[in-house]
Structure prediction request, 143 residues.
Amino acid sequence: IPEVEMTSQGAGMPLNARNETDAASACLLHGNTRIIADGPQNEILSACRNGDAAIYKYLDFGRGVNSVKMRIKALNGGKIILSAGKPWYRKLGEYDIAAGSSDRDWQVVEFDTGEILGVHALWIQFRGSEGEDLFEMDWFRFE
Prediction:
């Protein structure tokens, strides 16, 4: 019998980490980060500032992944830190992303992660200049 967890989508099976996950489907937002409309059919994470985080419960990484793709806008740029479980648990990766040429430029970035297997919560943390909006994020997908 498959194990049912409380996920970003409510009670149900963990989300498949290999599928595109809408960033606005976070279970918990910490700090200034908020969900806003980005057109009539899409929501994004916006106003991601230094010390903010988005938490997703739970993702099924299956037999393993070792990279992630994210669709982001680097407004003022900074660092994105991915951790499994809790922010002080296993760090999957830490990535510096420079500000885009325009705050309207979406980009898909890909980074290596440490290999991760099985079902875990995912913490996405944002670091950068204090008091500035660093990023907006549309989706992510592990490979």
User: Anything to note?
Assistant: The chain has a mean pLDDT of 90. The first strand starts at residue 5 and ends at 7.
